[in-house]
Structures are given as C-alpha cells and as structure tokens.
C-alpha cells in the first residue's frame, strides 16, 4: 500500500523518543527504559488520527499465526512477564516455542513466513484468542494492525497468497514505526544489541541459556552466542 509520509510528525516523534529513551536507558537501564517506552508507544498509537479506522479488537487473533520478530530487550521483558504466569502455562509456552522453532529451523528462510504457526503466547484460537503476555507483547505485535480483519483472516487461510492486502492505517503505521525506530536507535547508540530474531527461536535459546543470554546482552555483546540475528531496517529514522 502506497502511503504519503507525514514528515513533520515523524521528525518530531523521532526526536522526542530518541532523546527520552536515551535519557531513560542511562538512568533506569535498558529494561525499565524499554517498559517506559512501551507505555508511550501504546499512547501514541491510540492517539494517531486514523486509529478509529482499525478493525482490531479483543479476540481477533489471525495475526498471531504470522511470523513475529523480537529484539533481545523484548525477549528479556517477555521472560520477566512469564514469571507471573502459572508454572503449567510457562511450561506449555516453552514446549510450544521449542516445537515451533524445531519446525522452522528445518525450513529455508523464505518458507518460514508461510507456516501459520500459532504463537506460543496465544491463548485460544485465531478467531477467538487473546495474548497471554499482552502488556509485554513485542513491538512487532504492537505495530501490526489492519482496517480489514477479513484480510487478516484471508492471509491466515491462504498463507501462500502474497497478494492479500489487509489495509493498514497510514498514520498508525508511521507513528508505530517511527516510535520503534527511535527507541531502537537510542538502544544502539547506548551500545546494546538491536538485532531482530524470530520469536520462537529467540525465546527457546534465551530460556535454555538464560544467564549467558542476559550477561551477553548487558555487557553489550550480541545477545545470543549461537543464533544469528538480522539487521532490521530503520525505516523512518533518517527522513
Ligand atoms: S491485525 Fe488483523 S488479525 Fe490482528 S487484531 Fe487487527 S484485524 Fe485482527
Ligand atoms: S506475542 Fe501475543 S500479540 Fe504477539 S503474536 Fe503472540 S499472542 Fe499475538
């Protein structure tokens, strides 16, 4: 979908978020700074002028079968959020993430996005489910939205069909992307790993070697010793 960028809004948001996030990373540390940034992220999305056009609503979860990426700080936040879930639920999530990871690992990269694997955090089904870690869901999930849930359902039902357009809200998209770009730019400037990793593989590795993962991240190395991340494009940081 072609959209017209609101350059003034993007520049203002990027400047404000980069500065505030940079200050909070220095003062609070990366995890508390990330959690504070999530609050601003949600508030900015809700305030976007076209947010009323979204078809997203509680229970609608077709998008929870699409591929999700996460950065190391998001994985740390998710693991912290998991501690408040019942042990039986934590074990189910670990099992489902490991099963998904095992399936994905065998596939070529280009085939992975067509698998329709249920996110391990989804409680319920695509047509009636909710996120078990809603407050800690990754930035990718926060930014994914549509003005036509039927398009998301069609993508779920036809995972190989790349021509479906669920139609995004342009200002919600720009707001969310600018916010995420700015926060991650501040993290990168502070020296932290901002590579993106597929959620199931990152979670499985992080839980299996939690101390090593956290130590590597906090000492500003690439967070996973044995998992390669991707450089996510910062789409709106330099406009
Ligand atoms: S992005 Fe699509 S599937 Fe996800 S909540 Fe919104 S309308 Fe529903
Ligand atoms: S983390 Fe939550 S919102 Fe994101 S895909 Fe999984 S269940 Fe859906």
Question: Can you characterise this structure?
Answer:
Helix content is 53%, strand content 5%. It has 239 residues and is mainly alpha-helical. Strand 2 (122-125) and strand 3 form a beta hairpin. Helix 3 (72-82) crosses helix 9 (199-208) and helix 4 packs across helix 9. It binds iron/sulfur cluster (SF4) (2 copies). One iron/sulfur cluster (SF4) binds at residues 64, 68, 119, 121-122, 131, 133, 137, 141.
Provide a compact summary of the structure:
The chain has 239 residues and is mostly helical. The protein has helices spanning 7-28, 30-47, 72-82, 87-105, 109-112, 139-143, 149-157, 170-189, 199-208, 210-218, and strands at residues 69-70, 122-125, 128-131, 197-198.
Separate helix tally: 10
Helix content: 40-55%
What portion of the residues fall into strands of 2 or more residues?
A: 5-15%
Tell me which ligands are bound: iron/sulfur cluster
Reported for the largest beta sheet, the result is: 2 strands, antiparallel
Number of strands: 4
Distance between the first and last residues' Cα: 19 Å
Output the structural class: mainly alpha
The helix-strand sequence is: HHEHHHEEHHHEHH
What is the fold's blueprint, element by element?
Blueprint: H1 7-28, H2 30-47, E1 69-70, H3 72-82, H4 87-105, H5 109-112, E2 122-125, E3 128-131, H6 139-143, H7 149-157, H8 170-189, E4 197-198, H9 199-208, H10 210-218
Antiparallel strand pairs: 1-4, 2-3
Helix pairs in contact: 1-2, 1-8, 2-3, 2-8, 3-9, 4-9, 9-10
The structure holds iron/sulfur cluster (2 copies).
One iron/sulfur cluster (SF4) is lined by residues 64, 68, 119, 121-122, 131, 133, 137, 141.
